[in-house]
Fold Armadillo-like helical domain containing protein 1.
Amino acid sequence: MTGCCLEKLLKSIGIFLSAVSSNRYLREFLEVGGVLTLLEILGLEKITEEAKKESVKLLQVIANSGRKYKELICESYGGYRV
């Protein structure tokens, strides 16, 4: 999935993760491999820069949710890839 569809999808996910009561959505997103998916998007060459920016924004939202989420990103080699 490339182009504007991916950007719109990432923005939609961002709305849920940025909501006031987003803990449930955040847990579900992480359980299905959300962090690994976002990191994979950053490593793909054929993905638009806008989609990569949205991926970084989502990683920031996740990291701002607490230390354990920052550690999860680092354990997923996020510190190395980003």
